[in-house]
Amino acid sequence: MEERQRTVALIGPGRAGTTIALGLVEQDWTVVGVGGRAPDAPSTVAAAAVLATGTGLVSEVARGAALVIIATPDRAIEQVLLAAEPSIEPGALVVHLAGSRGLDVYSALLDRRTGVRVGAMHPLQTFPSATTGVERLAGAWAAVAGDPEVAEIARSLGLRPFDLADSDRGRYHAAAVIASNHLIALLGQVERLAATCAVPFEAFAPLVTGSVRNAFALGPADALTGPVARGDLTTVEQHLRDLDPAERDAYRALAREAARLTGRRDTGLDRLLGDLRQPPATPGDD
Ligand SMILES: NC(=O)c1ccc[n+]([C@@H]2O[C@H](COP(=O)([O-])OP(=O)(O)OC[C@H]3O[C@@H](n4cnc5c(N)ncnc54)[C@H](OP(=O)(O)O)[C@@H]3O)[C@@H](O)[C@H]2O)c1
């Protein structure tokens, strides 16, 4: 194998990029340079230190790299590719990590450069910091597209690659956002409600982890328990009455999703959950 085949440049020295680059270093890749907003930007300097390499301008950093990882915010990818183009080597593989962007981001680059290979690799995992993520790679799935070497690289990092077409990317990324960010937002609601009754947030941890385990073991529909699954309208009504009005929209929206999972129609429940703006009925109302 030529020396150039295991050289990588990182553009976008944040959480995901540094994690992937560290994973590649563990697989005997050499990082030839790190480019960020500026060579002396704190994140660029920090990533270069972790990866035992130097910093450079985005327009120069890809020189000598067989692999160029683009790990900037999604909206910056095209602009970064434009800036990096002069230093991208013939035959190099350029891979971005964005879940929301496909191979379309490369159209301007490929118009100008033949022989450059491109791909996308989106790890279905969360990297909360630049240095604590490497151990999270093993066993995580990753959406890949483009050059076949992308899947090979993903596998070498311990990821489980699956193909994703650009036309499916919007819905795929929405699912990933729901699985990660919306789940956290939901736990924020649990934390707020727990605080109002002086119950520690941690008390809900076994319930949450058990429910998630059940959803993957049994499928979401069979894992569903609770008042909506039981058709217990009185309890749902009581919840809506007791909740702060600011908490009701989310409760109703998710209870409707739970009702959808049961596959049953219940006109009483439909009425209760139907209009997000309606206050819940108080006892005595008709
Ligand atoms: N974090 C995750 O859990 C995760 C998981 C899977 C995929 N991804 C994907 O990975 C990519 C990066 O996400 P992230 O979470 O790692 O973000 P991040 O921590 O904010 O890192 C982005 C990095 O890009 C740098 N940057 C911003 N604009 C730039 C530009 N114009 N030129 C060069 N560098 C620039 C930022 O510099 P500053 O530090 O100076 O702001 C920062 O170092 C995204 O496409 C995201 O979808 C992230």
Could you characterize what this model shows?
The chain has 286 residues and is α/β, with parallel strands linked by helices. It has 2 domains: 3-164, Rossmann fold; 170-274, N-(1-d-carboxylethyl)-l-norvaline Dehydrogenase, domain 2 (Orthogonal Bundle). Helix content is 45%, strand content 13%. It is built from 12 helices and 7 strands. It has a 7-stranded mixed sheet, with helices on both faces. Helix 11 (245-262) packs antiparallel against helix 12. The protein is elongated, with a radius of gyration of 24 Å. The N and C termini lie far apart (78 Å). The structure holds NADP nicotinamide-adenine-dinucleotide phosphate.
Percentage beta strand:
5-15%
**Low-confidence spans:** none
Q: Tally the structural domains.
A: 2
- The overall pLDDT, averaged over residues, is 93
Topology:
Elements: E1 7-11, H1 15-26, E2 30-35, H2 42-50, E3 67-70, H3 77-84, E4 93-96, H4 107-112, E5 117-123, E6 141-146, H5 149-156, E7 160-163, H6 169-196, H7 205-218, H8 220-223, H9 227-230, H10 233-242, H11 245-262, H12 267-274
Parallel strand pairs: 1-2, 1-3, 3-4, 4-5, 6-7
Antiparallel strand pairs: 5-6
Helix pairs in contact: 11-12
The structure holds NADP nicotinamide-adenine-dinucleotide phosphate.
Could you list some keywords that capture this structure?
286 residues, N-(1-d-carboxylethyl)-l-norvaline Dehydrogenase, domain 2, 7-stranded mixed sheet, 7 strands, binds NADP nicotinamide-adenine-dinucleotide phosphate
